[in-house]
Amino acid sequence: MKRLSLTLFLAGLLLNCSSIQSQSYGKLIYPATQKSDQKDIYFGNTVFDPYRWLENDHSEETEAWVKKENEVTYDYLSKIPYREKIRDRLTKIWSFEKVGTPFHKGKYYLYYYNSGTQNQSVLMIREGSQGVSRILLDPNTLSADGTVSLSVISLSKDGKYLAYATSKAGSDWETIQIMEIETGKVLGDRLEWVKFSEIAWKGDGFYYGRFDAPGAGKEMTAKNENQKIWYHHTGTDQSQDILFFEDKEHPKQGHFAEVSEDETHLYLYSSESTSGGSLRVKDLTRKDSPFITISETFESEYKVIDQIKSTLYIKTNRKAPKYRLITVDLNNPGEAAWKTLIPEKNDLLETVKVTENKLVVNYLKDVTNKLYLYSKEGKEERQIEPGGLGTIGNLNSDREDSLFFFSFTTYIAPPIVYQYNISTYALTVYSKPVIDFNSDELETKQVFYSSKDGTKIPMFITCKKGTKLDGNNPTFLFGYGGFNVSYTPEFRIDRAIFLENGGVYAVANLRGGGEYGEDWHKAGIKCKKQNVFDDFIAAAEYLINEKYTSHEKLAIHGRSNGGLLIGAVMTQKPDLAKVALPTVGVLDMLRYHLFTIGKAWAGDYGLSSNEEEFKCLFKYSPLHNVKEAPYPATLVLTGDHDDRVVPAHSFKFAATLQDKNRSDQPILIRIDINAGHAGGKPTSKQIDEFTDMWSFVFFNLGMKYGKS
Question: Which residue has the higher pLDDT, 224 or 337?
Fold first, then answer.
């Protein structure tokens, strides 16, 4: 979409709101959204879709609607008396030095760095672990507004080149370029229409995945099909790239390639959805060598950790829902010959990394990480304990290095980067942020509550020490529950402003996620998806019953699949919360698969073309379950360049809510211009978004802003 200006659109005057105590502007006047008589028939069921025209996000009509909706939204937000104070405070909290976790490649160590509120973090490089750092690539120089971001990077084995991918305005589309590391010179190579791809070096070039160019005007909505793997020689035009792999018989499958550390073998992963995939291996030392199949089905996950001669080390959940580490001999790759190196345990095996002579193994136990050193033979030797209820992330190691690095974060403090020396078993702090936020006054505890069917669900609750459980605390409940994703403790800068103003922040670890392995994931997919919504509703009821909060003091939030969660919960129980924030949500469950990468989500959701799955989808699809009812104060958030969950989901949902809401609570949609699903969003836009989100939450929960 074009960049849209904001002008006054309201057809009636809004009530003056100079008092912080006022919780409503009165009944808002929304733009009139045209309805069509569009309807579809699913297995004898007539389904109306009057706002289908909003799916065309490049049409003049849709752009005009976006402009008018944003005018109403920003006019409302502009009248919140402490909005600019929230912006100033967010900016102040955000402005601290952020040093990323180093990773080692050849003679170089690289890491990301942000001096405070830079729009994009800068890629830094130095020779050796104690060398002098210099800027290798600063994405802030690639666009005036900071909306070009850096995504995938990969160094050639000889350390001569850096291949890097950038995206614009948060789009999943990427462009790959190449830089000479020594000189910083960017070569003329420019690879377009890249998406969901690795950059796998082999010799003087690399393998990568790309799609055929979409039709004009369809770049943000067209289905992503027929992904192919290509090989690019450094210094050549993309038109000269060599086609390495395609599968014409299965256009909906996605593929990506990795190359072994010694560049002798290529690992080809293929998938049909967001979980499960096949694995094939090709010997690159022999011309026209056939693929060796490790698994050709899509029932399980496989990840090659390392290769020593003909032996592959693979993390898999094949016959092990919580994962195990196996070895596979390429000379005898059949499953009957696989050997288990680290067996499945009660805890979830998340990550295995290889160092000079050890394995670094990261487990998830009740949604917090536990880190161990193992021998190369798979024997546990010692635990590494940074301490607390937290998440170990960005675990970076090298098989030729005795040092490895990782970050550790909690709900109340930003990540600390640690260095570990496996020769001396010394754990040292590599980088600890200094932030203008008092973590000492906060505490996090974990509780386990019962869902509707009796299943015990974990939840983290963070608040000020000594918080009174009188049912009057403003509370913000977040959830996701999908795609085998584990929501472990993380420090969110924007949440800090809510916590320091007396808010209670809760995160429920719902079924559908990956917190307890594949069985936990499968308990929340397809026709079991209602379990996820029940888990979240039960979390809210726990917080209310335990006197943390009340219905009138509760806000609920989720992003993407979590946006679906909020949409489903608020249409099933409109009186559960006072505020709802469905963000970049999947909200039309009958048509989600028709856009971009949506078909890949069918493993979690099912398809409306299947009669049984249609019945389940139609029963909870947020768009199709909006009834005439009093809904909570709602701020729908999306981006006009979201080509993962296309903004039509949010457009149609907001229009339907505005039409059918029978309360005086605001139903607003904030459409971020020149922004995508989330990835690569510049700091300035993040601060803008969270300023508006928290202003809306504070105001509609009746909170006083007390931090200057």
Answer: 337
The pair of structure tokens assigned to 73 is 């939204």
* Mean pLDDT, rounded, for 553-569: 98
Q: What is the dihedral of CA 558, 564, 567, 573, to 10 degrees?
A: -90
**Taking the C-alpha atoms of 659, 660, 664 and 670 in order, what is their torsion angle to the nearest 10 degrees?**
-50
The Cα 54–Cα 47 span in angstroms is 17
Domain presence at residue 147: no
Question: What value, to the nearest 5°, has the Cα angle with vertex 502 and ends 636 and 567?
Answer: 20
The pLDDT of residue 221: 76
Residues 91/108, Cβ–Cβ less than 8 Å = no
Number of domains in the chain: 1
Nearest to 93 by CA among 661, 415, 500, 373: 500
Contact present, 92 and 707 (Cβ < 8 Å):
no
CB 462 within 8 Å of CB 477: no
Could you confirm whether 677 is annotated as catalytic? yes
Residue 309 has pLDDT above 70, yes or no: yes
* Among candidate residues 49, 138, 164, 169, the one with its CA nearest the CA of residue 678: 169
Cβ-based neighbour number of residue 306 at 10 Å = 17
Sign (positive or negative) of CA dihedral 602, 605, 607, 612: positive
Per-residue confidence (pLDDT) for residue 1, from 0 to 100: 30
Q: Distance between CA 20 and CA 86 in Å, rounded?
A: 14
pLDDT score for 328? 98
In the structure, what pLDDT confidence band is assigned to residue 321 with cuts at 50, 70 and 90?
Answer: very high
Q: Give the Cα separation of 658 and 665 in Å (integer).
A: 10
- CATH number, domain with residue 695: 3.40.50.1820
Q: What digits encode the pLDDT tens for the residues 649-667?
A: 999 999 999 999 999 999 9
Alpha helices (runs of H) in 621-647, residue ranges in sequence order: none
596 located within any domain: yes
Catalytic residue among 104, 255, 624, 677: 677
Residue 671 belongs to domain spanning: 69-92+438-700
Tokens 């009093």, residue located: 630
Please pick, among 407, 486, 560, 621, the residue that the annotation labels catalytic. Answer: 560
| Average pLDDT of the segment spanning 497-507 | 98
pLDDT tens digits along 240-267: 999 999 999 999 899 999 999 999 999 9
Establish if 269 belongs to a structural domain.
Answer: no
Look at residue 262 and tell me if it is in a domain. Answer: no
Could you read off the pLDDT of 13-33 as tens digits, one per residue? 222 332 333 344 567 999 999
C-beta atoms surrounding 486 within 10 Å: 19
Single-letter amino acid code for the residue at 217: G
Q: Is 593 a catalytic residue?
A: no
